[in-house]
Amino acid sequence: MRNLLTGKKVSLVVSGLILSSTMTFAADTIDSAFKEGKVTGSLGIYGQKVEVKNFEPDFGYANANATLGYETASFYGISAKAEFKGNLKLGEVEKGDYKSEDAFQNTALMTEAYLKYANEMIALKAGRQAVDLEWMGDYQQAVIAEITAIADTTIVLGYSQRKAESGIDLSEDFDKFNENKGAYVADIKYAGFAGVEFNPYFYSAPDMADWFGLKTTFSADNFGLIAHYAQSDIDKAYGLANGYEDGTIGHVELNTKIEDFTAAVGYIKTDKDGGAGSMAEIGDNISPFEDGNYVYEIDAKTIYGSLGYTIADIELGALYGQTKFERDYKEKELNLTVAYSFTDSLEASVLYADIKADKDYGDLDYNKILASVEYSF
User: Fold this and answer.
1) Staple partner for 140: which of 55, 104, 160, 205, CB 3.0–4.6 Å?
2) How many CB atoms lie under 10 A from the CB of residue 177?
3) How far is it, in rounded angstroms, from Cα 268 to Cα 247?
4) 179-196 per-position pLDDT tens digit
5) Residue 247's closest CA among 220, 292, 281?
6) Least-confidence region, from 65-79, 249-263, 273-287, 321-335
7) How far apart are the C-alpha atoms of 221 and 253, rounded to whole Å?
8) Cα–Cα distance between 334 and 356 in angstroms, integer?
9) What is the pLDDT of residue 283?
């Protein structure tokens, strides 16, 4: 995989040239593909307020968000998609909150811009795209192939050079990671046994780290079990320069769903010397918390439980957990959520989070409230 992709890093300019040449050689058919394409988008308003105990000032901002995307119909398996997100500041608690590191780095961003080729056995995307893998998430500037030629098996092979996170609540630029060397991924999902899915995977970030893992999901009637383990091998020079050591992480969760009621309990444990290593550099799907500041730290032990209930289109959720880390310091987090669907396209939600740390970390005691209304089409 490395030999196939090295030297072919993703270029939006190249993607644009390919699309232009395709239009040149098949203009009439491409016109039909564009006319039969699909428009998607959303309009939303979001606000958050953070109150940090024993520290002033508070933090917060409000934002209006608009998303517009367009995907062509397929022509001989080839299609293209572009998506833009725009943001407008509605207010902020203190000057600079809206443009802070964890908020809005830009007012507009092209979040997706890719060419896609798909048939019954493979789907190949090149460009900016949404990705949802165990350690590669959000938006990636990448080349990703999804192969389904083998029964009950999905194989994902890819390379990503840059990543961004963008939504109604924040927007960051597509920034390089691993000094622009990016990372390769091989992810396999096998579901040939009833109620069981095996998901082995391997990532390689050149001159940074390799990591591999296995996630197994069991489901039977109203109950489910997740068992996940991953290990990283840090490049020696990178580890010395950045303070990383080889790391591991394990995760076990037992969950249930009975009609409109859901519940889960889980445990997450990292290596006593290296924590989770550098595995969370390009995204993750393990931490269940809104913040979870120490879940991936050295010798972190996290236990959590959650409850959910849906009644009359109102979704209620509660999550509580504790992370013990570094010399038995503790951080406790409570998340409470309420979401209501007015229609299939219009939803409002509120999340309250309360985070408490040990007294030596007292400046990190804080609570936050997030609220949004969003219409999607």
Assistant:
1) 160
2) 17
3) 13
4) 889 999 999 999 999 999
5) 281
6) 273-287
7) 16
8) 9
9) 79
Taking Cα atoms as reference points, which of 286, 274, 271, 285 lies closest to residue 239?
274
Angle at 299 between CA 244 and CA 332, to 5 degrees: 120
Please name which of 292, 227, 304 lies closest in space to residue 264, comparing C-alpha atoms: 304
Q: Is the pLDDT at 115 greater than 70, yes or no?
A: yes
Which of 57-61, 65-69, 229-233 is the least confident region? 57-61
Provide the 8-state DSSP code for 73: P
Integer Cα distance of 164 and 112 in angstroms? 11
pLDDT given for residue 116 in this prediction: 97
Identify the three-state secondary structure at position 343. Answer: coil
Paired tokens of 373: 């209304």
Burial (CB count <10 Å: 0-12, 13-18, 19+), residue 54? exposed
* Tokens 């080839």 belong to residue: 78
Residues in the chain: 377
Owner of token pair 């579901």: 191
Q: At 74, list the tokens.
A: 């397929």
State how far the alpha carbon of 276 is from the alpha carbons of 289, 291, 358, in Å. 17, 16, 22
96, two tokens:
């600079």
Q: In the predicted model, is pLDDT for residue 375 greater than 50?
A: yes
